[in-house]
Amino acid sequence: MRVLWLLMAVFAVLFASDCSNSQSTVSGDQSAGSKAFASPANNLTEADVSKLKWLEGTWKGMDDDKPFYERYRFEGTSMVVESLKDEKLEIEDADRFELVNGEFGKGEDEDRSAVSEITDNSVQFVPAVKGTGNSFRFERQDENSWKAILEWEAGDKRPAGRKVYVMQRVK
């Protein structure tokens, strides 16, 4: 959950990396463009949300040399994301993404993130209110790993950027 908050609140910089536990950071005019900051979809269904079941499980990522842990589980058309304290996997915080009126997301107003696209192997989250936050994309690599790609647009005091976290299955 720490990373999920980092993805949605602070959103460092993502650049795709093929190394299993590495991350890359890039700043400048490197945004993925239209997909990263598209409008949220408003026609999603239970079948679309079920495509995300590959996220279920407990995952470890690295933020530089600091490990972090998250657990993803589904309750009907909701996805619960738990931030875990450490390798002991005790819950520190939790968040819930819900399918409501065709939109799959969490939060309210300017703090809301919602899905713009779901495929069998990826999901793109975008700020529900354009210009108010960062986007993040989860891309499945194989059964035991996926990438969390965070992107943000240029602001008054920061250039556009992206950061990639490689998530490895714990259990």
Q: How would you describe this structure in keywords?
A:
mainly beta; 2 helices; single chain; 171 residues; Lipocalin; 10-stranded antiparallel β-barrel; disordered N terminus
Largest sheet: 10 strands, antiparallel, barrel
CATH class annotation: Mainly Beta
What's the CATH topology name?
Lipocalin
Mean pLDDT: 82
Q: Name the helicity range.
A: under 10%
Rg on CA atoms, Å? 15 Å
State the secondary-structure class.
mainly beta
Tell me the CATH architecture. Answer: Beta Barrel
β-sheet strand percentage: over 45%
Q: Widest sheet: strand order?
A: 2-3-4-5-6-7-8-9-10-11
Based on Cα principal axes, name the global outline. Answer: globular
Number of domains: 1
Tally the helices: what do you get? Answer: 2
Low-confidence stretches: 1-33
Assigned CATH superfamily:
Pab87 octamerisation domain
- Tell me the number of strands: 11
Which series of helices and strands comes N to C? Answer: HEHEEEEEEEEEE
Span between termini: 17 Å
Set down the secondary structure blueprint:
Layout: H1 2-10, E1 25-27, H2 46-50, E2 57-63, E3 66-75, E4 78-84, E5 91-100, E6 103-106, E7 113-118, E8 122-127, E9 135-142, E10 145-152, E11 161-169
Antiparallel strand pairs: 1-11, 2-3, 2-11, 3-4, 4-5, 5-6, 6-7, 7-8, 8-9, 9-10, 10-11
How would you explain this protein's 3D organization?
This protein is mainly beta and 171 residues long. The chain has one domain: Lipocalin. Helices cover 8% and strands 46% of the residues. The chain contains two helices and eleven strands, in the order αβαββββββββββ. The protein has helices at residues 2-10, 46-50; strands at residues 25-27, 57-63, 66-75, 78-84, 91-100, 103-106, 113-118, 122-127, 135-142, 145-152, 161-169. A ten-stranded antiparallel beta barrel has the order 2-3-4-5-6-7-8-9-10-11. The radius of gyration is 15 Å and the shape is globular.
